[in-house]
Design brief:
single chain, 197 residues, 6-stranded antiparallel beta sheet, 6 strands
Length: 197
């Protein structure tokens, strides 16, 4: 009897770990990649920042976008701010960066990720959006084996999930998962920049 109880106790952490992994995967499944009325992938989040003016928020977000996104460690040469209008509170950047699927000593698996990051700022709040997502994928970094993908044709529910919408597909699902993770990092970075986290 003691052996059975001990065996059950030893299995509990494994069960908890499996449950946590399943819970983590839920954020990538059905509905995780929104598509707007025109049919384009469009991520957006609004943050309330009580007590901060548009000028304060705009300045903090511009600093974040310039240093952490446009000048980030994985950025490529075409990354730039395309609109910076403090009067209207609009800040936009076109980004070209590496999106890494694996980055280890002997293995580098990545794609070039293009997107537009837009912040619309007003007193006490701002909205950040990610749109016009595209990928330039060079298979195994081998010239001549490359593909260009639009997010709409690659990471939507129809393209990146199985028929039951319960699992990510092998290849498109990988792009979906890493895109969602990058979006989360960008949005969290914007929140930190204005003192929310």
């Amino acid at each position: 009897m003691k052996k059975i109880i001990l065996a059950l106790l030893l299995l509990l952490p494994l069960t908890a770990a499996a449950q946590t992994k399943d819970d983590d995967m839920q954020k990538y499944l059905a509905g995780a990649v929104p598509v707007n009325a025109e049919g384009f992938v469009y991520f957006e989040k609004t943050f309330d920042v009580p007590g901060k003016s548009r000028a304060e928020l705009y300045s903090a977000l511009k600093n974040y976008v310039e240093k952490e996104v446009v000048g980030g460690s994985d950025h490529l040469e075409k990354s730039r701010i395309t609109e910076a209008d403090s009067a209207s509170g609009t800040l936009a950047a076109s980004i070209e960066e590496w999106l890494y699927f694996a980055k280890r000593a002997w293995v580098t698996h990545r794609t070039i990720f293009y997107y537009q990051l837009v912040c619309q700022v007003e007193d006490g709040r701002f909205t950040v959006s990610l749109r016009n997502l595209r990928y330039h994928y060079v298979e195994n970094d081998t010239p001549g084996v490359e593909n260009l993908y639009r997010a709409e044709d690659w990471i939507t529910d129809e393209e990146a999930l199985n028929k039951q919408k319960t699992k990510l597909t092998r290849i498109a699902g990988k792009f979906r998962r890493f895109t969602i993770d990058r979006k989360d990092a960008l949005f969290q970075g914007a929140a930190r920049a204005v003192g929310l986290e």
